[in-house]
Design a protein that fits this description.
Radius of gyration: 25 Å
Number of helices: 24
Order of helices and strands: HHHHHHHHHHHHHHHHHHHHHHHH
Length: 576
C-alpha cells in the first residue's frame, strides 16, 4: 500500500469499515482527538472548544456514514435557526408555526429515508401499480458532484432516528421555555453532533447538555477511573458477550430456525435478549466513558432492565432516553393518563394508515373507521369509559409508534403492540394482584421471571427478519411442549415422537454449545448481581492507582479481543 492509498484509508469513508467503537482505528482517532483537545479545552472562548469537537464529530460521522453527513448539517442548520426565531418571536401563532415546521422537516427526512421504500411497495400492492423507487437525493448529488450513488435504493443514514429526535426536542424545549437557545451555530452543531452519542444515543436533551458546554472542563481523578471503567465494561459487553454469542449461535439459529431443535431456538431467543442488551448498553457505556474523558456527562440509558418486576418498570429501565422522549413529547401531549386529545386521534389515524398499508388491502381502513366510530358512540355515553379508552389508546399508540420508530414492518408493529398491551394489562392486573405489594424474595423472583419471559418472547418479532422466521422459531419452540394428544398416543403419535426426540437432544446441544452457554450464563449472572456488589467492584477499580488500572484495562481488552471470531459486528441500533 503506497502513501496515497494509506491516506485514503485514513481519511475517506469506507462502507466496509465504518468508524465504530470496537475498531482499533477509533481508539487511534480518539487518542489524537484527546491530544489536540488538551491544547484547546482550557480556552476561555468556549466556542473554540465546541468548534473543535464539532469538526471532529463531523469527521467521525463522515467515516461512519459517508456523504450522509450533509443530512446532519441540514438538520443542524434548520433547527438552529428555528430555535432562534422561536425564542425571538413574541407572537404565539408564529412560534407554533415554527415548531410545526421543525417537526415536519425532521420527520419528513426520517420518513423519506426510513419509510419511502415501504410506502411505495405498499402503494403498488394496494393499487396494482408498478412505480419504481427513485432516490432523488442521490440523483441530485450525482448531478452536482459527479458521484455514482445508486438511484434505485434509499439507504438509511446512520443515527438519523437519534439526531432528528434530538433536534426536534431542542426546538420544542425552546418553545416551552425550558432552555434558552445556544449562543451560535457552532455551539448548536456541537450539541447535535457530539460523536460519542451521535449514532446510537443516548438521546441527549438540550437542558441536560447545553449548560455543560459553557462550563470549565472538569475531570476528577475518580471520574477518570470511572470513565475507564465504563469503556472497559462496554467493550466486554459488546465483544465478549454480545458479538460472541451472536456469531457463534444466535445468528445461525435465526437465519434458519427450522434447521435447529426447539431447545436451540429457545436458547437463541433468551440469548438474543442478552445480546441486544449487551450490544446496546455496551455502546452506551463506551459513549458515557468517552464523553466523560472529554468533560461531558451523558445521561444513563439503562438501569439493569431485566431486574424489572413488571412491564412498566422495564420501560423505565430500558433505553431510558427514548422512553422518556416518547413520554414527554408524544404520550403527555396526546393527553397521557388524563384523557384524549386531537393529537391522539391524529396519531391514531396515522397508525391505522400504517396498518392498512402493512396489510395491503385498502378496504381494511373503512373497517377500522367503523370500529372507531362505534367506540366513539360508547365513549360519549360514559365519561369513565371515555377516559379509560383514551388513556389506554395513548399508551398503545406510544408503544406502536415506538415500534414503528425501529422500522416499518409487521414485526416491529407487533413488537410495539405487545409491549403496549403488556403495559395496559399490567395497569389492571396490579389492582387485583396478590403479589403486587409483596417484597418477599419468592414474590420478587416470580415477578422478575414473568416480566423477563414476556419481554424475551416479544424479542422474537424484534429480531426476526420476516414473519416466516417468527413462525419457524415459535413452531420449533412449541415442539418442546406436549399437547394432550401427545400423552394419549405416546407410542405412535408423530408429534409425540418429535417431542421425545427434542428433549433427548438437549444434553447434546448443551455440550455442543458449552462455551456459548457459559458466556450467556456469565452475562446473566453479572446482570442480576445486587447493585451493592456492582458498586463495590466498580469503586474498587476507581480507587486503584493509575498503573494498576492501566494493567487491568490492558489485560481485559486483550482477553476481549481474543474472543473475536469474525469481523467486527456493527452495533445493533445503528440500523435504526
Amino acid at each position: 500500500m503506497d502513501i496515497l492509498d494509506y491516506l485514503k484509508e485514513i481519511f475517506l469513508y469506507n462502507p466496509d469499515k465504518p468508524l465504530i467503537f470496537t475498531r482499533f482505528y477509533f481508539w487511534v482517532f480518539f487518542a489524537l482527538v484527546l491530544a489536540v483537545y488538551s491544547l484547546v479545552y482550557k480556552n476561555k472562548n468556549r466556542s473554540i472548544r465546541a468548534g473543535y469537537l464539532f469538526l471532529v464529530s463531523l469527521f467521525f460521522y463522515y467515516k461512519s456514514s459517508g456523504m450522509f453527513f450533509f443530512i446532519l448539517l441540514f438538520s443542524t442548520l434548520t433547527d438552529y435557526y428555528i430555535g432562534k426565531w422561536v425564542f425571538e418571536s413574541r407572537k404565539l401563532l408564529y412560534k407554533r408555526l415554527l415548531i410545526a415546521a421543525s417537526i415536519t422537516i425532521n420527520l419528513s427526512l426520517l420518513v423519506y429515508f426510513k419509510y419511502s421504500a415501504f410506502f411505495l411497495e405498499s402503494f403498488n400492492d394496494l393499487f396494482n401499480t408498478n412505480f419504481e423507487l427513485v432516490n432523488y437525493m442521490a440523483v441530485l448529488m450525482n448531478n452536482a458532484t459527479g458521484t455514482h450513488f445508486a438511484v434505485d435504493q434509499i439507504l438509511l443514514p446512520v443515527g438519523i432516528s437519534f439526531y432528528t429526535f434530538q433536534t426536534i426536542s431542542y426546538s420544542i424545549d425552546v418553545y416551552r421555555g425550558e432552555v434558552k437557545p445556544v449562543n451560535n451555530l457552532i455551539d448548536f452543531g456541537f450539541y447535535v453532533s457530539f460523536f460519542p452519542q451521535l449514532v446510537a444515543g443516548p438521546i441527549v436533551r438540550a437542558s441536560q447538555f447545553i449548560p455543560q458546554m459553557y462550563k470549565d472542563y472538569k475531570l476528577s481523578r475518580a471520574e477518570f477511573g470511572l470513565a475507564i471503567f465504563w469503556i472497559m465494561k462496554g467493550l466486554v459487553k459488546k465483544i465478549f458477550i454480545g458479538d460472541y454469542i451472536a456469531v457463534n449461535f444466535i445468528d445461525r439459529v435465526f437465519s434458519s430456525p427450522l434447521h435447529y431443535s426447539g431447545f436451540e431456538n429457545l436458547m437463541a431467543l433468551f440469548g438474543y435478549s442478552l445480546q441486544v442488551y449487551a450490544d446496546f448498553s455496551g455502546y452506551t457505556d463506551i459513549a458515557i466513558g468517552v464523553a466523560l474523558l472529554l468533560g461531558f456527562r451523558l445521561p444513563k440509558n439503562f438501569d439493569s432492565p431485566y431486574k424489572a418486576q413488571n412491564v412498566g418498570n422495564f420501560w423505565k429501565r430500558w433505553h431510558i432516553s427514548l422512553s422518556t422522549w416518547l413520554k414527554d413529547y408524544l404520550y403527555i401531549p396526546m393527553g397521557g393518563n388524563r384523557g384524549g386529545s386531537l393529537f391522539s386521534y391524529i396519531m391514531l389515524g396515522i397508525i391505522l394508515l400504517f396498518l392498512t398499508l402493512l396489510i395491503g388491502i385498502w378496504w381494511v381502513l373503512p373497517i377500522f373507521i367503523v370500529v372507531a366510530f362505534v367506540f366513539m358512540i360508547f365513549m360519549r355515553k360514559s365519561a369513565k369509559f371515555r377516559k379509560a379508552v383514551n388513556t389506554n389508546i395513548n399508551l398503545l399508540l406510544t408503544m406502536l409508534l415506538g415500534g414503528l420508530w425501529h422500522g416499518a414492518s409487521w414485526q416491529f408493529v407487533i413488537w410495539g403492540g405487545l409491549n403496549g398491551l403488556g403495559l395496559v394489562v399490567y395497569k389492571f392486573w396490579r389492582k387485583i394482584s396478590p403479589w403486587e405489594a409483596s417484597n418477599t424474595k419468592l414474590a420478587v423472583v416470580w415477578k422478575i421471571a414473568i416480566t423477563f419471559i414476556f419481554i424475551t418472547f416479544t424479542r422474537v418479532f424484534f429480531r426476526s427478519e420476516s414473519m416466516e422466521v417468527v413462525k419457524g422459531v415459535l413452531h420449533q419452540i412449541g415442539s418442546l411442549f406436549p399437547s394432550i394428544s401427545d400423552f394419549k398416543n405416546i407410542g405412535n403419535n408423530i408429534d409425540a415422537i418429535v417431542f421425545i426426540q427434542q428433549w433427548k437432544l438437549i444434553p447434546e446441544v448443551i455440550v455442543g454449545y458449552k462455551w456459548v452457554f457459559m458466556v450467556m450464563l456469565i452475562g446473566y449472572v453479572f446482570h442480576w448481581l445486587p447493585y451493592s456488589l456492582k458498586d463495590k467492584y466498580r469503586q474498587w477499580f476507581i480507587d486503584r492507582n493509575f498503573y494498576l488500572q492501566a494493567l487491568i484495562f490492558s489485560i481485559v481488552v486483550f482477553v476481549v479481543y481474543q474472543s473475536i471470531s469474525s469481523d467486527m459486528q456493527a452495533f445493533i441500533y445503528f440500523q435504526f
